[in-house]
Amino acid sequence: MDEQPLLRDLVLLGGGHAHAVVIKRWGMRPLPGVRVTLVSQDALTPYSGMLPGLLAGHYSLADTHIDLTRLCRWAGVRFIEARITGIDAVDKRIDLADRPSLGYDVLSVDTGSTPELDAVPGAREHSVPVKPVSQFYARWQALLARCTQDARALDIGVVGAGAGGFELLLAMHYRLLQASADVKHRFHWIVASDHVLKGHNAQVQQHAVRACAQRDIRIHWQFPVTRVDADGITGPNDQSIALDEIVWCTQAKGPAWLINSGLALDERGFLAVNAQLQSVTAEELFAAGDIATQIDDPRPKAGVFAVRAGPVLFDNLQRYLCQRPLNAFKPQQKFLSILATGQQSAIASKGRFSAAGNWVWHWKDRIDRRFMQAFSDLAPMSPSQHRNKQAPCALTDEGESAAPPMPCAGCGAKVAADTLASTLAQLPRTRSDGVTNSLDTAEDAVVFEPGERYVAQSVDQLRSFIDDPYLFARIAVVHAMSDLYASGAAPHSAQVMVTLPYASESVQVRELEQVMQGIAHQAFAEDTLLSGGHTSEAHDLTLGLAVTGLLANTRFASKRGLRAGDALVLTKPIGSGVILAAHMQARCPGPVLTQCLQQMLVSNRQAADILRQHQASAMTDVTGFGVLGHLDEMLSASGDAGCTLALDRLPLMNGVETLSDAGFKSTLYIKNARAGQQPDKHSSIASHPRYPLVYDPQTSGGLLAGVPAAEAADCINALHAAGYSHAACIGEVLALNDTGDARIRVIAS
């Protein structure tokens, strides 16, 4: 065996600039034996320096965002897309929304700051905060559309006298001028004092004021906002300014979830850290970027410091894990700041130096693009670079060996009894009729009495295809249950076989918790009793489920029974094989993978009921053999049936056509294509861009059923109403002699 156990968990909380640098460097210089996990609410993280250019229309969304999914996959870092709700520094756990908490040995925080909205009445309800950027950008897109469709001139205000407010103000002014040149929108800069751009020299401040004057942007001096309403803002002496849109870009604060963390914070709620970027109250916790304040040398909240802190943070995380002395981060007293002024022009500032012009913007553009290129140009890495080997310098739990012995096989590969017992004790319990024992009793077998019903059983096993064990476990349950739904059975119980990666006890406990919580969550959602299971250890996380369902004879369904005239209905989009193949090579865009996983989580339970209600003649779930392979199984089982399959009617996952055209294919694709029928190489169908997707193996795919033609439209409508928005009729069943030489006649539309 050439792989060694995982010994420690390093969790990176937040996808800020510093953590992006850490992940890139970790991919190039990993610390063996340490499992790194990034937790971020979004798969795409914006580069703040390019946000004004995005609003102005100089850059695309892809130009200005780091794809954390791709970066993590390339670097061998786990990625969990989840919203943070708290930190328990005592138990070393991170609380996450809608999923179990996550344990850590070492934690680094780089989540950025939160807009200060509650200090001014109405600001939260009636203004648009700049952060989070994803929500602000969506609101900006809506405003753009509104301005291009509405001939009325709008009053748009930006509250905040800092560099961020100035850049956004001029970027929005420029973009709206390009989008609706015939309408002159009125822009307002709301400034609480008698000066702008605090911290910049007088020349830069004058540049900014002149830039506003040249664009007829009105500056409202000494106007601290005291109230925000739907139609404007109020300031001193009840003065008001009527505004149609209010952008809030004032001083930020730390997130609310830090308040009860027990960690030392500064006066604005940011994590207090020392010169080594280490929490002053918890040595295993580090922080950088806007979320952190160096108590002995506080600096302004600026992206330049987060970027420069990245290399020091990376070194100190590895040094701490190796029990070596830490390095100090010494931020600059004077730093270069370049402020974009809407069009391709900018103002440069450093100490008493200033400059302005188009050349400054092009200088900034080169700097920004070079920084972003480091996170998009990801050269392929060999498997050995992702392999965790024994780490002689990594910390271990007290009492554990730094060099665990060679793992055993056979029953010696089982997970420890106390590890298993503590995990099972946390799981929610469900009940099923006729079961005499389950997880509450440590029996050798589960016993149940089915009564006057038929028993349907199926087994499935999946090796993990994503780095999120909780999400993977939920998908594995949905995938396994589909066989029962396709047969017309109601789920009764499930037994699970969990194979965990070799790891230290502390890491293994965390992994098992995530897996079992995911299984229990989805089993409960499917109204299924988790009745027992088995654990073992190996190289990769693998889940197997043996599921049992009950059904009455009259409700039995099968692949047999397709009739000429039936419409072929597919309930979920296809493309997961292509998407996962691209993901394995760190080439799948994060949002594409996210929506793919969301489709995998959609249970087929309600879809099966709807199909039966509309007199489905035969049914199966589309999984490893792809649409064409499973359709061929149904036709073969139905005797003398053939069909048409319309490529243009196939529901596809977002982004899959682009990835398929780029040549990404699952390893099972070749076998599926070899086993299936092939069109004439001179046929136009053979060159149809969607044709390869009929062989694409699906994980947790939809149901494929034959529905009487008279019921098809109502069936599709019912599926859409139930949330199966991609459900579609993809072909028709014909008598076999009507399909020509092939059982399945593939057509364009």
What does this structure look like?
The protein is an alpha/beta fold and 749 residues long. It folds into 4 domains: 235 residues, FAD/NAD(P)-binding domain; 129 residues, FAD/NAD(P)-binding domain, CATH 3.50.50.60; 145 residues, 2-Layer Sandwich (60s Ribosomal Protein L30, Chain: A), CATH 3.30.1330.10; 190 residues, Phosphoribosyl-aminoimidazole Synthetase, Chain A, domain 2. Helices cover 31% and strands 22% of the residues. It has 20 helices and 35 strands. The strands form 10 sheets. A 6-stranded mixed sheet has the order 31-33-30-34-32-35, with helices on both faces. Strands 5-2-1-9-21 form a 5-stranded parallel sheet, with helices on one face. The chain is globular and about 85 Å long. About 3% of the residues have low confidence.
Please give a quick description of this structure.
By secondary structure, this protein is an alpha/beta fold. Helix content is 31%, strand content 22%.
Mean pLDDT: 90
Structural class: alpha/beta
Largest sheet: 6 strands, mixed
Number of helices: 20
CATH class type of the largest domain: Alpha Beta
* CATH architecture annotation name of the largest domain: 3-Layer(bba) Sandwich
Rg for CA atoms:
29 Å
Query: How many strand segments?
Result: 35
- Quaternary status: single chain
What is the count of structural domains?
Answer: 4
Uncertain segments = 386-392, 398-403, 408-417
Fill in the CATH topology of the largest domain. Answer: FAD/NAD(P)-binding domain
